[in-house]
């Protein structure tokens, strides 16, 4: 794919689309290292700022992992667990607090399910690893 500078879509979002397509197609499989910011900037003739903005969006979507001092990698897709829902349970999706994100070991950008049980308890579950199923 090519960046279209005349398009209405910002160039950094076009780069997000390109990289997301490569991740979804398996061209960049889970665990693989993304090309460097410099390589992406040169290849797509973008500024480093545009590349950083694109990578930040992919990070917020939970598709990549960035660790200071290490290369950026495609995030591994964890196995999903099925969580049964009972009659009367209510589910809301939201972004976790920083404390919840840390305690659940979640990447930045992944939402949680807040399940209010009929009995009054509330479960906060990482949406990236849980499938909710009505019984």
UniProtKB/TrEMBL annotation:
Keyword Ribonucleoprotein: no
Disordered: region residues: 69-106
InterPro entries: Bact_HTH_transcr_reg, Tscrpt_reg_HTH_GntR, WH-like_DNA-bd_sf, WH_DNA-bd_sf
Domain HTH gntR-type: from-to ranges: 9-77
Statement: the UniProt record of this protein carries the keyword Transcription: yes
Pfam hit, one: GntR
Keywords noted in UniProt: DNA-binding, Transcription, Transcription regulation
CDD domains, A to Z: WHTH_GntR (cd07377)
Protein name: GntR family transcriptional regulator
